[in-house]
Amino acid sequence: MVSEEEFDAAFARIQDGGITHYADPACQENGQIYRRERTEGRRGTYFRDPDGHLMEILPPGGAGS
Predict the structure, then answer these.
(1) How far apart are CA 5 and CA 42, in angstroms?
(2) CA angle, corner 15, sides to 11 and 18, nearest 5?
(3) Dihedral angle sign, alpha carbons of residues 49, 53, 54, 60
(4) Which helix (H) or strand (E) holds 13?
(5) According to the model, what pLDDT value does residue 60 have?
(6) Most CB atoms closer than 10 Å: which of 19, 24, 46, 54?
(7) Exposed (0-12), middle (13-18) or buried (19+): which is 63, by Cβ within 10 Å?
(8) Cβ atoms of residues 19 and 31 within 8 Å
């Protein structure tokens, strides 16, 4: 997990670099981040590293995290 600030910085680099990112690990929701309804404020995104491995960035999010 990364902090909210680290997520924002990493996500900005992903967007600025034109890296395809997804809201889901099946890579069906292109260009999106996910938001978990049951955990207020939780969000994340998936992307592939240069070797093609699926990576995820995820801040803790939610109350009490």
Answers:
(1) 13
(2) 140
(3) negative
(4) helix 4-16
(5) 81
(6) 46
(7) exposed
(8) no
SS3 of residue 5 by DSSP? helix
Q: How far apart are CA 53 and CA 30, in angstroms?
A: 16
Beta carbons within 8 Å of 54's beta carbon, 6+ residues apart: 25, 27, 46, 47, 48
What are the phi and psi torsion angles at 22 (to 5°)? -135, 155
pLDDT at 41: 67
Q: What pTM was estimated for this model as a whole? A: 0.81
